[in-house]
Amino acid sequence: MLRTLQDLLRAVTAPAATAPPAAAEHTLQLATAVLLVEVMRSDTELHADERGAVVHALRDKFALAPDELDRLLELALETAREATDFFAFTSRINAAYTMEQKVRMVEHLWRVAYADGTLSAHENHVMRRLSDLLHVPHGAYINAKMRAQQPGGNAKADQA
Description:
By secondary structure, this protein is an all-alpha fold. It has eight helices and no strands. It has helices at about 5-15, 20-40, 50-60, 65-80, 85-95, 100-115, 120-135, 140-150. α2 packs across α4 (about 65-80), α6 runs antiparallel to α7 and α6 packs across α8 (about 140-150). About 35% of the residues are buried.
């Protein structure tokens, strides 16, 4: 179960080395969800398709019950509104994910960006910034973008 909003916000700001394993997993889930939400929010309008892409990505990454998924998404929306930068979130992901998992994450981010059928200049900028902060090589970034553009192109959904 996800802990209360206040506990999770404290966990994001606490050093990773001092967090218990369950708290570290919750923090990683929140960091992942916040990045997905940031791409969704980078558009001028929030679309149901983008929200659906965020939910799909979270289901792909984590085994969460529907109520846990709803609370994680709610918490991610609130945390994203209050965040001043991406570093607290990307540093957690960099510490926990392999390169393959980070590339898969970027692919999910692209799916959110493309979910409404358009890619704004701001969405493109956020994607590039997040990819850089996740230390994803440019070639892997472009390949993830191309996979995300393919209809039903979720061949690696069971990986990472």
